[in-house]
Amino acid sequence: MADNYDVSAKRVTATGALSIGRARVRMLVATLSGAGRITLTSGSGGATKIDLDYGAAGTYDITLPGTGTLFDDDPFLATATNVSAVTVFWS
Fold this sequence. Notes:
By secondary structure, the protein is an all-beta fold. Helix content is 0%, strand content 65%. It is built from no helices and 7 strands. A hairpin with a 5-residue loop joins strand 3 (23-42) and strand 4 (48-54). It starts with 7 loop residues before the first strand and ends with a strand.
């Protein structure tokens, strides 16, 4: 039987709080203008939960394994090097 849960999405274009509260991040879609990095922490200054490096410009779909990554505090986009936009999908 498939898991049943509501999924929401939010697009951001700068670092900072996602303002979505406690969330389980399931997927990211990132558009980069060149080699770059995305770091998501659990709250500002909290534990690093997702840290991804990219070698070239492009649009990347990142599906997190299992049930995704739980952020006990509001997910915070701490690093967005050469990132034009990130869409975060969570439940």
